[in-house]
Design goal:
Alkylbase_DNA_Glycosylase/TA; DNA_glycosylase; EC 3.2.2.21; HhH-GPD_domain; 0% strand; elongated; DNA damage
Length: 224
Amino acid sequence: MPRHARGFDVEAAYDHLSRRDRRLGAWMKRLGPLPAEPRWRKPFDPVDALARAILFQQLSGKAASTIVGRVEAAIGSSRLHHDTLGRIDDAALRACGVSGNKTLALRDLAARESRGEIPDLRRMATMHQDEIVAALVPVRGIGRWTVEMMLMFRLGRPDVLPVDDLGVRKGAQRVDRLEAMPTPKELAARGEKWGPYRTYASLYLWRIADFSDGAKAAVNRSQD
């Protein structure tokens, strides 16, 4: 059974994408090589990460961090798992500022973990990325995009293209100089050219989406 390393060779990814896609390659040259994600090397706990993703949804970073801190104090642990979350009831979670829907999501995550339904890091290393998505999206409050972010920024899978992400779609629109953002289906088809390094392409597309109009014009001139 093949094992998937956390992270990939960004130099190989840069060279591959530069050769495969002239338009994207021009942007990549302008922006320069992007370094490897430092979180690929850091310890990672999938259940804790999913719990924190739930708590951070639809909140500013500061507000979410405050709520997480309250929950950690209430459970007496910085580790959010079924055993530690089980130390407090729903009313106590609500008192920490956790909404009703997020409370239900945390309880569902904890219940699934207790039943062995959430793969740990060792098990994930043997799973295809689509298998990881299939295992995690049934959790209440966890969508495909959340799992894709985990795959890209924590597990370091090289070939993830989050086609529903507005920033990625906006970046692709700029690369191809389109009047409108590509649909997720169109972006998926466009992204076939970027495999097996669609993660690295996505990192560039986010940066391209945020690029200033003046800088974008300079890149467009270099393509003409």
